[in-house]
Amino acid sequence: MPRYALGLDYGTSSVRALLVDLDTGAETAHAEATYAHGDDGVIGDPRDPDIARQHPSDYFDALRVVGPTVIRKAGAKPHDVIGIGVDTTGSTPIPVDQAGRALAEHAEFATHKAAHAWLWKDHTSQAEAEEITARARIERPHYLERCGGTYSSEWYWSKILRCERTAPEVFAAAHSWVELCDFVPAWLVGERVPSKLARSICAAGHKALYADDWGGLPDAEFLGMLSPGLAALRERLRTRAVTAEQRAGTLCQVAADTLGLAPGIPVAVGAFDAHLGAVGAGIKPGDLVKVIGTSSCDMAVAAARDPMPSAHGLSGVVPGSIIPGLLGFEAGQSAVGDIFAWCARAVNKRDLDALARDAAALRAGQSGLLALDWHNGNRCVLVDPALSGVVLGLNLHTSDAELYRAMIEATAFGARVIVERLVALGVPVTALIACGGIAHKSPLVMQVYADVLGRAIHVAASAQASALGAAIMGAVVGGAFPDVPAAQRALVSTPSTTYLPEEDNQAVYQRLYPLYVALHDAFGTAAGRRDLRDVMKELLVVRGAVRT
Questions:
Q1: What average pLDDT does the structure give for the chain?
Q2: Contacts with 448 (C-beta within 8 Å, 6 or more apart), sequence order
Q3: In 10 A of CB 280, how many CB atoms?
Q4: Cβ proximity of 243 and 233 under 8 Å
Q5: How many CB atoms lie within 10 A of CB 450?
Q6: Buried residues in 415-446 as b, exposed as e (16+ CB within 10 A)
Q7: Structural Rg of the chain based on CA atoms
Q8: Which tens digits make up the pLDDT trace of 237-275?
């Protein structure tokens, strides 16, 4: 009989399902369904561009589409699936009632944005994040060592504190708050009570200041310094978090009927999409996996150390958040694909492929443009969502394609800053692997990244790396493999494409990168303030040299 693992990948705009044959490693079938509410699944507010929410009902409505579809496309029988894994965006916390049901599923809160899921890219809680950082620096500095030195508005506690202050009626009605990557597995196994459901070390460690060596979540005394409501909430949370190859439980009858599967199938603990994307890309020590989509997440793993290494300027270091038994390092950029989409809208180009072709015909440095990739703030290494995009070098002849290429180059320069920070912190980076939609769909972006980074970039074989990583966790909990590395060896194929740096382009970017760093430090750090008058002139010098 065939054996399959099912991977469920909850992205920003849609959910994807992937069925993997555990005997051949073949990705037998996949399906995708978009979320019904909002703009591409994101519920915003024209009065506040920092709001980004999702309606929790979308998660299950989309699942009702992709589950049966992927089983039907594969021709699989209900008992052929032996394990299920789940990955989601994060931090995406959801206010829930005592039974673990989302408040937005109650009629009185159905249209209340604060009762929806607070999507990862919601930046409304910047003031609260700054307050958490300032308080921790005084009272609990060790909390910040693991999360990069600065707490973010994209993360768990800052969003909940923001809700308490701006929507007290929702905060009062919420018995607890559950991360999306815990919410979905809890529904699948039928154990949704917040104090009992399986809690992901990936979400808790990277976004909620969790660590086993200080007793799990932040202590009640510290949370009480921020708000008595947060201190009380801690008592209603399950404090122990576990790795994603552990069982959350087995598929309950309701979920089995929804998916068209048999009840009793083991379901893995959830994790974030980028972390399981790294697993699906075959990550091992020495690799840096770049998961490139609407934003980018950079993942690395390394052997455990004592004491724990610093994560200053990163999004954190957490034992077991990617591969159990190894330290998981996370970094990234708050916008990549979102910046490209913004640029296409800004120049009124509906055909993104045509814009990319025109940009690919340009040479490095030909436009005289230099940009900062902070349109949605800076996730790493500055950890500052209060920053914004910059374009330098515009003139009356600047073309649409030149602007688009400058945006690509800006994200590549930002990626290089992160790589250099990882290396400076002692994290080995000997190979670069890219996955996600942009890695597979845009040769231009991948070539520019290779040229700017001065390194070969290998594109992961799977176009569904996150869903594959989730399926790998499902395969392990289903008993097909003894551990995650063994499952990776069986199910992850050799990278499909490699981009090598082009010497001429690399030489130009070596001249432009110090100018990017000058802008990065001048606008982003207090120590980096300097006279920038030479930057415009140097851009013209580079442009002239390239054109002649």
A1: 95
A2: 364, 405, 408, 409, 412, 505
A3: 33
A4: no
A5: 23
A6: bbbbbebbeebebebebbbbbbebbbbbebbb
A7: 23
A8: 877 999 999 999 999 999 999 999 999 999 999 999 999
